[in-house]
Amino acid sequence: MKNAVTFDLYKTDSGTRARRGCLHTPHGDVQTPVFMPVGTQATIKAMKPEDVAGLGHEGVNIILSNTYHLYLRPGHEIVRKAGGLHKFMNWKGAILTDSGGFQVFSLGDLRKITEEGVEFRSFIDGSKHMFTPEKSMEVQNALGSDIIMAFDECAPPDADRGYIKKSLERTTRWLRRCKDSHKDVERQSLFGIMQGGFFKDLRYESAMQICELDLPGYAIGGLSVGEPKEVMYDVLDNCVELLPSDKPRYLMGVGSPDCLFEGVERGIDMFDCVLPTRIARNAAAFTSVGKVNLRNAVHTDDFEPLDPNCDCYCCRNYSRAYLRHLCKSNEIMSSMLLTEHNLYFLVRTMEKIREAIEEDRFLEYKQEFFDSYGEF
Amino acid sequence: MKNAVTFDLYKTDSGTRARRGCLHTPHGDVQTPVFMPVGTQATIKAMKPEDVAGLGHEGVNIILSNTYHLYLRPGHEIVRKAGGLHKFMNWKGAILTDSGGFQVFSLGDLRKITEEGVEFRSFIDGSKHMFTPEKSMEVQNALGSDIIMAFDECAPPDADRGYIKKSLERTTRWLRRCKDSHKDVERQSLFGIMQGGFFKDLRYESAMQICELDLPGYAIGGLSVGEPKEVMYDVLDNCVELLPSDKPRYLMGVGSPDCLFEGVERGIDMFDCVLPTRIARNAAAFTSVGKVNLRNAVHTDDFEPLDPNCDCYCCRNYSRAYLRHLCKSNEIMSSMLLTEHNLYFLVRTMEKIREAIEEDRFLEYKQEFFDSYGEF
Questions:
Q1: Which residue of A has its CA nearest to B42?
Q2: Binary contact (B331, A45; C-beta < 8 A)
Q3: pLDDT, tens digit, 9 for 90 and up, residues A232-279
């Protein structure tokens, strides 16, 4: 029985832990390290799927979508009847869905945790729902994504050691239940999620427990939840290598340019984040010369492209003055153009990172990037 | 001295006044009758210009933009410095700009009319401004559109005969001032606008006055301002033929499918309207089987395309269930897809109208269209 998703590790950078590999999925190959654009509600906000697929020089072949949102609306049975998420949203590449765990745990007072699962209320109509490991698998099976994530608890960053330990152990028990209830491993691959907060020994404990289940991939959860970046990098320094080197490693919810470099340097293969698409809808852009806010008056009569070193659709065809006009006028086109640019920027940066790893000059490229980008 | 925009009348339908022609502009030819999509603030809302240019089977080669909006934001001098509106917004086809008259007259208590022009306040910051025929020409000259419209008064539909008469005479005086102050007729063509409310004799008077100026095109203003459609058709029955047959005739602000047919039948060559793009952002679509509202629950599990007889990007790739999901989720993609479909629908319908006129079967095609579309 062949796993839906397999991983080839091509090489490791000579000076760092940075890895160059490839995910083979039922919807095509994905070169790693990779940044996955997020399409929460079965659409990458403000972009056509063909335009997403065409980003960068090599294109994008994997996106992320959210189980929690799609379960509530339109409902996973609708997506199943549509022929699955790929067909529903007209996306021909691979899809990774999260488990819904992160979202229901973010609801605070609106949810109740038991050994069975999590009871929560809908953000749409207040109706009561229950997510369990089995339910999350059922929903993700209906969605038909290539990679499905385990239903875990992402404990609050301020939780005490006792709670984190209890929580990661429950996450392991839930992972076993996910594995037991997910049957069609040739169609979809289940990834486990390491927890353990900012405690190195608990991260170790979590890693040992989940790796025992021999899954086709592993994620690191519970990071980028408000802690200083140094804390995250310190955890990564100590826990990435606890995961098997022949399996893909996914750092969940991380996607600022600096974090991509730091994650790759520590051996991460996959990233996702709403940051590039979200800031785009707030008139902000990543560029090779730093972050730019297009509402700033300095752009009023600046007829240069947004990023002088970018060859994306936006930078080839429009000026900062035009983008500022669109942002000030609240035009949908501003979200369209800035989303396309921001995703292009991260995708293209990741392509250059892959090339640098291949040529054993990852740190050199990192330095070059930051020399141009400036302070974060 | 050659006019920027010239018109060739190819033929007239055998059974009606419907005309088949071509506008030659500095930015390419435009086959008529034509529907012009509206890009109020230098963008067709929710569409990339390349996608607009690719609509229908023959493509779109003319759009409309608004002088009033662009004067206030970003300011016509910014657009001039950008190299003109075409370059600013990345539109390679022709552009028609209105004069700003309609918008400033719509401001009600916020404006004051004198013989000199109209004083009004900005909707953005309340600042005071003055539009005169000369100012409107100056602004439109800066924008660099292919067709510029005369600064006219579109009198309120409930104005009495005395006011309408006074107003149309002032509109003629203003038209003369527009013509006198617009110098570069080889770069931009000025169209005059007929007024006269719903009074046939005043329409006649207005037509005689403006046609004396021998302009490269004429528009009919002051219609589709809230009156019953029969009243508009009655005015058109009597006044379209007052305009010279060798010049293009433009019915301003009209664009519902039924009005396009009725206008073409009465000898109109050009139309514009925000309707298809505006209703798209409210989850509504024109289809060959009538108007569809995608928020309607009946579409929840309807996996058929929006329009069974449409070959647009939206109908080739997405289901009504998906479109409903996007609309319910307030996703930008719903505006993108429905705008593209609605414009495609009108553009494609106009292509079929042109073909029908060429083959002397306009009324036959009209009947066929309405048999399928149903009641308006």
A1: A326
A2: yes
A3: 999 999 999 999 999 999 999 999 999 999 999 999 999 999 999 999
User: Which has the higher per-residue pLDDT, A122 or A215?
Assistant: A215
Report the C-alpha gap between B222 and B232 in whole angstroms. 10
DSSP conformation class of A37: P
Tell me how far the alpha carbon of residue A315 is from its chain's centroid: 25
The closest of B284, B289, B283 to B375, measured between CA atoms, is B289
Q: How many helices (H) and strands (E) does chain B have?
A: 15, 16
C-alpha pair distances (Å), A339 with each of A46, A166, A274, A283, A369: 7, 40, 11, 9, 21
**Residue B145 to chain A, least CA–CA distance (Å):** 17
**Nearest residue to A198 (alpha-carbon basis) of A234, A174, A226:** A234
Mark yes or no for CB contact B73/A45 under 8 Å: no
B 102-141 residues inside an 8 A Cβ radius of A: none
The answer to whether the beta carbons of residues B32 and B21 sit under 8 Å apart is yes
Closest CA to B113 of B201, B192, B173, B158: B173
Predicted pLDDT at B188: 98
CA A343 to CA A340: how far, in whole Å?
5
DSSP string of B139-177?
HHHHHT-SEEE-------TT--HHHHHHHHHHHHHHHHH
The C-alpha angle B136, B139, B141, rounded to 5 degrees, equals 105
* B332:A89 CB<8 A: no
pTM of the shown model: 0.98
Residue A29: active-site member:
no
Which DSSP state fits B35? E
Yes or no, beta carbons of A322 and B89 under 8 Å apart: yes
Q: Please state the ipTM of this predicted complex.
A: 0.97
Number of A/B CB contacts below 8 angstroms equals 97
Q: Which of B43, B318, B324 faces A333 most closely, judged by CB atoms?
A: B43
